[in-house]
Amino acid sequence: MGWCPRGIIHLHSPYSHDACDGEPRNPDTGAIDENCLADLRAGLCADRIDFAALSDHDDSMADEQFQTLLLQRDDDTLLTDGGGNPIASVIHCANGHDVMLTVGGENELMPIMLDRHPDGDVQTRHDVYNADDAATMALFRSLGGLAWVAHSERRTVDHLRELAPDGMEIYQLHANLDPSIRETYLRLPPAGAIQAVAQFADTNPGGPEPDLALMSFIEPNTNSIDKWETLLGEGMHISGSAGTDAHENAFPITLGDGERGDSYRRMMHWFANVALVSDPTDPQSIQDAVGAGRFFIAFELYGTPSGFDFVGTGASAPVEMGDEIASDVGVTAELTLPTVYHLDPTLPAPSIRGRILRIDASGTTKVAEGSDPVLTAPLDQPGAYRAEVLIVPRHEGPYLGNLGPDLADREQVWIYANPIYVAAPPTP
């Protein structure tokens, strides 16, 4: 795996009815809001996102031709399959960066990286995109996509088990923001996020850096992680992703830098799903990596991680995230802790540590933990082995201004790595 493209999984364009402050179309002409679309495209380019898995609501994406949903403008390149059918588009940014876009939907289920719409008329499309069962998950796969679950905090384990998704969100930005979701599913103060972000509207000298606003309300989505680990412990292979869920419709208040709090650029700047691929220009290579769980979540508001790795060693071939091997003596999980890319040496130093967790039928067991540059754990028992990197981001303290350094002294998860799966050895 020679490339690590950074991707957004779960993103809305003006073809979602509630995007662009709930007014994504001109009420008289039906034309989409080109200014809002330009914000989305500019944000992808400014953040140098490599791939974006769009996930628009059926109202109104199901009403459109599939190619329209690829958002082609200017000199974008259309990518096609072997039959000449459009499956992705590439934005060629003014800064020289390229962004690959694919089509998906978010309703009850979240198919991503689709190759085409469901067969049938427009009403049939709406019906399929709004379905919520395992048969529809299989249908989405037959349409060339991956079958994902968004907002897993609102799902029961029983239903997730029935759906058997390719992946599920284990962190959801909208869930951390939305008052009702925070209170009902995350057991957090409902208005806590909005009150915290409002502090970053301060334009006085010494005010906090607005792009660090997420630090004021970010919390692990333990509700979702617990469900993910339950299913992993039962032997299911399910990738865990982070959902940006940007619409430019959640926090229109202008922050201290003159940009709205929920701008596409700002929200997509905070974290990415980083895939391990052989060809970052090939949509199938990216899709294969995401579907297999060959990726990790990086919260880049703390800095871009440099040097991170989580592999199995000692087998006949390297074992990547998403791979399965048989348990054996001498096969080891190896977690290489990253550093903050291009960290200013004059800033306070962050504290970084890692842990490797084994999830099996008995629950979750910590099998390695520490701040050594490389942590190891034997892969000698069946289960799903996943890794986390944690950070105390003291280097961000000087940018928090009059809020003080307290937010920078909280340990937070910097990276969630998808599991390496270990099966029981074959019976002799």
Q: Could you write a compact summary of the structure shown?
A:
The chain is an alpha/beta fold. It has helices spanning 19-22, 34-46, 58-61, 122-129, 134-142, 157-163, 173-177, 179-185, 192-198, 222-233, 264-270, 283-292, and strands at residues 6-11, 51-53, 77-80, 86-92, 98-102, 110-112, 146-149, 167-172, 239-246, 272-275, 295-298, 305-306, 309-313, 324-326, 332-336, 339-340, 351-360, 363-370, 374-378, 383-392, 412-423.
Largest sheet descriptor: 16 strands, mixed
Poorly predicted tracts of residues = none
- Overall morphology: globular
Radius of gyration: 21 Å
Number of DSSP E strands: 21
The SS-based structural class is: alpha/beta
Strand content: 25-35%
Describe it for me?
With 428 residues, the protein is α/β, with parallel strands linked by helices. The protein has two domains: 6-298, no CATH class; 308-428, Immunoglobulin-like (Sandwich). Helices cover 22% and strands 27% of the residues. It has twelve helices and 21 strands. The protein has helices at 19-22, 34-46, 58-61, 122-129, 134-142, 157-163, 173-177, 179-185, 192-198, 222-233, 264-270, 283-292, and strands at residues 6-11, 51-53, 77-80, 86-92, 98-102, 110-112, 146-149, 167-172, 239-246, 272-275, 295-298, 305-306, 309-313, 324-326, 332-336, 339-340, 351-360, 363-370, 374-378, 383-392, 412-423. The protein has a 16-stranded mixed sheet that branches. β7 (146-149), α6 (157-163) and β8 form a beta-alpha-beta unit. α2 (34-46) packs parallel to α11. It is globular. The two termini are 33 Å apart. The mean pLDDT is 95.
